[in-house]
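User: Hey, quick favor. My workstation is busy. Could you predict this chain's structure for me?
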Amino acid sequence: MESILDLAKTEGMLFKYGSGAGTNLSTLRSSKERLTGGGKPSGPVSFMRGYDAFAGVIRSGGKVRRAAKMVILNDDHPDIFEFVNCKVTEERKALALIDAGYSAEDAYASVAFQNGNNTVRLSDAFMRACANNDLWQTRAVTTGAPVDTFPANDLLHAIAEAAWECGDPGVQFDDTINRWHTCPNAGRITASNPCGEHLFLGSSSCNLASINLLAFLKEDGAFDVIGFCQAIDTFITAQDLLIDHSGFPTPHIAEVTKTFRPLGLGVSNLGALLMTLGLPYDSADGRSLAATLMAILTGQAYLRSALLAQERGAFAGFAANREPMLRVIQQHCVALDALLPNYPLAQQLHAAATTIWQRAQLNGAQHGFRNAQVTVCAPTGTISFLMDCATTGIEPELALVKYKHLAGGGMMKIVNGAVDAALTRLGYGAAARAKMVSYIEQHDTIDGAPDLRTEHAPVFLCSLPSPKGQQMISTQGHVRMLAALQPFISGGISKTVNVPHQFTVDGIIGVITLAHELGLKGLTIYRDGSKRTQPLTTAAPQPAAQPSAFTRRRLPDERDAITKKFSVAGHEGYVTVGMYEDGTPGELFIVMSKEGSTISGLMDGFA
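Assistant: No problem, here it is.
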């Protein structure tokens, strides 16, 4: 109990200073086990309510942004079904409140589990059981004894159904994550940060930074590799120095972070870069270019880390993990060798990446590494706006024109700035470009724009459907981009796989299965419109309906009327309705009992 309550304090301090926390609660006894004294445990989901409440009242960094929180449970925990469905139950409560007239903001603020992301840890054994239609067992946390036995696909279906209904839970593939773990001799990776990109040892932390990829694209379409690598060197050096100048919420987090020194360098504006080059996000050329850029990012970061180790020494945990870390470095190199791009720019970058990784591998074997991890792909929402990026992280464009609901209230309209450059690259003249940009501003989409050639339409596909119902990027397009990038990232990738509103539960099961087969570390799925409120939409806000203007209609001096006799429990009365010329009722009288009596007064008031 002391440890359980300590977690609330630690998370609260992390939220206060603008950070986030991820916790795997699988070490808590399930509600299906017994306490030593004979009582019944409340289970991890009950404690989640308390943690969620704290997250709801502590603003991130003391500002309006809500706290960032991740909760994880393993696939063999006895309370796994309760965990999977806990947000679904609360979502239905929120919808009932909205239908009763409450605002969406008030409705969601009054139900539980809205301040964090839920994720299920899936093992290779579980995924094999699903593929083979085998049974699956949950096991007691304290004894390891079997608790429940059921078809594995029942759990997979429950996960998919919950994600279909409310976007949670996501999934993380435990064995894949730990196959890419550089320090397994120090323990397994059991959790991640709230957005899923920092995947490392428990009680570790990671400072984040991101580079705007589009800033290195030259006017002639070449990519400034030298400048990109110099930026990587600068960021890795600065981030490493920052570790020793940071404050940490607990001594243990400080100790683990300084022992392994993990870093989180990433990128932003990938979607805009591809669009500017006239490459569809969902294309082999788009994926190969993105993958080679990530290979350069991580290869150069590890090279810089090895050179820092030569100057300042390897991280303290390197010696005990030398063999597995060099094995993971080799896995990165093997993935790069298997990447055979056809796109000319990607071919040039691939040659540069190969040289960089050879140097990183050689220097790392000789001097070790200063940092156990160097790169992640964070969502980069706020900092992307500060860097004037058209797209965030590695996401494609959500919509050419989108409306962002702000945390402090209000809304802003965001128009993609890469369209004109993309049209130029594709060979359109100034007049045609101006006409199409004007069309986008008027209609919030390029779908149906004059002069747009059919073969170029895929370049402008987005994650969300346009107001005119333009085709979205395919679900497999999202997953395959993740699969292309993951072998060249030290940690994880924060990215949402957007699916259309009409997507099915079976479709989500297929996406999860494909993600595991392609070697992803994790997956988050969001079905468009599955929640009554979402931060980004493609529809412009509609003005509030104005009350209709009521006007007085005078009855004619002489009018038609209808009189009806009635009887209620033996008490008789008469209803008289006077009407306008068109036959609609204009006045009502009810005569019952004598004038001046209580009953008569009640009937007059009622009429």
